[in-house]
Write a structure and sequence with these properties.
Layout (H helix, E strand, L loop, with lengths): L1 H30 L17 H4 L7 E6 L15 E2 H13 L2 E7 L7 E2 L7 H7 L2 H8 L2 E2 L10 E4 L5 H4 L4 H12 L3 E5 L22 E2 L4 H7 L3 H4 L4 H7 L3 E2 L9 E4 L2 E4 L5 H11 L11 H15 L1 H14 L6 H13 L3 H23 L1
Parallel strand pairs: 1-3, 1-6, 2-4, 3-5, 6-7, 7-11, 8-9
Antiparallel strand pairs: 10-11
Helix pairs in contact: 3-4, 3-11, 12-13, 12-14, 13-15, 14-15
Length: 368
């Protein structure tokens, strides 16, 4: 009886110690996350030098297409277009001299997905932009679009696109005509769902033998384990089924594919590069801008994936201490949690170490 009591006491002490350790680690981890700047929510376009300085105008028009779908299939899960994918591309097009109109399958007010944890200054500027908000609240119904008025078309992601882009006849006709007349077509994340059922005049699928990127099976299933039963198909599988040469990059990092006038991006973090690639395809050098903290964090994560932790640390030092560039520590921390979700324990701790190193580097910069 005494031995049993000692065993129970030992087990209780072990469990208690583990709980304390977990709590301490959790508090330390949270201390690595910088507080959000409350002023960021007040950002307007004129606050951003990229938009307010050295303005370019009158180069033409680009049509952005967003979903009209509010719910994921037969579920009660809300959806819509991804704010960041529209806002960031919208401002790239505008900064480079193109007027942007916004259309949707049904027209009118388009449903939007707003994740404040991931929002940056450009996203808030878009929400505070009365002209842009008028356009998202009064989207042009696709059947009323005069496709001849636009130099390019951009399909915004958001899971709703999986439901109302693939079988939309107006989308199919515009994409076919644009591709065959060498007009620029861009699509990001779930936006390439607009391309999967397009048949060219030669009777072949548009995507056949084309380099294409989109939200991947791995990215989809990690976040929505029952995606196969919710969506009509998984986008990566459908693209491959249509004969596409699917280009898959690391999970939740930038990957952009080019195939002549067809430009596609894997996920929201591909939006900046994709939009600027569209500007290049339209015949212009993209206007210079400072990379965002998210982009620099993605750069660090890509370096970590490719060359390891030490190289990633060197890059962090260069960005923060030598070049005084922004770096989003939150995104680094999120990727550590993604590693934990995937069961990659050593990578989780390694990435947490990068977050800690970034915080220390920022503290050094503050003392200089």
């Amino acid at each position: 009886m005494f031995k049993k009591y000692r065993l129970l006491k030992w087990i209780s002490l072990c469990i208690g110690s583990l709980v304390v350790i977990a709590l301490c680690f959790g508090l330390w981890f949270l201390s690595l996350i910088p507080p959000k700047d409350a002023q960021i929510e007040l950002t307007v376009a004129k606050d951003l030098p990229y938009l307010s300085e050295n303005k370019i105008t009158n180069r033409g028009k680009i049509l952005a297409v967003v979903t009209s779908t509010k719910k994921m299939g037969d579920t009660n899960k809300s959806t819509g277009y991804e704010l960041s994918e529209l806002a960031q591309a919208y401002y790239v097009f505008q900064a480079n001299g193109f007027e942007v109109d916004i259309a949707s399958p049904k027209g009118g007010k388009a449903p939007v997905v707003i994740d404040k944890e991931d929002m940056i200054s450009y996203d808030y500027a878009f929400l505070n932009d009365t002209k842009a908000q008028f356009k998202t609240s009064n989207t042009i119904k696709l059947e009323n679009v005069d496709a001849e008025n636009y130099d390019a078309i951009f399909f915004v992601g958001g899971k709703g696109a999986m439901f109302d882009f693939p079988d939309n006849k107006e989308i199919q006709n515009i994409v076919k005509d644009y591709y065959q007349s060498n007009k620029v077509i861009g699509a990001v994340c779930h936006g390439p769902a607009a391309l999967v059922n397009v048949t060219l005049d030669n009777g072949r699928p548009l995507l056949e033998n084309k380099k294409v990127s989109s939200f991947t099976n791995k990215e989809e299933l990690l976040l929505i384990s029952d995606a196969k039963s919710i969506f009509p198909f998984l986008l990566q599988e459908k693209i491959i089924e249509q004969g596409g040469n699917f280009i898959e990059g690391p999970m939740y990092l930038e990957t952009t594919s080019y195939d002549k006038n067809l430009i596609t991006g894997q996920n929201p973090w591909s939006t900046w590069k994709l939009a600027e690639s569209m500007i290049i395809e339209l015949g212009y050098n993209p206007k210079q801008r400072q990379k965002t903290g998210d982009e620099n964090a993605v750069y660090v994560l890509a370096m970590y994936k490719k060359d390891g932790k030490q190289k990633a640390k060197q890059l962090i030092e260069n960005l923060l201490l030598k070049e005084n560039k922004p770096l989003n520590r939150v995104l680094l921390a999120k990727h550590s949690l993604i590693s934990a979700m995937k069961g990659e324990v050593s990578q989780f701790f390694s990435l947490v170490g990068l977050v800690s190193f970034a915080k220390k580097s920022e503290n050094k910069l503050a003392k200089i």
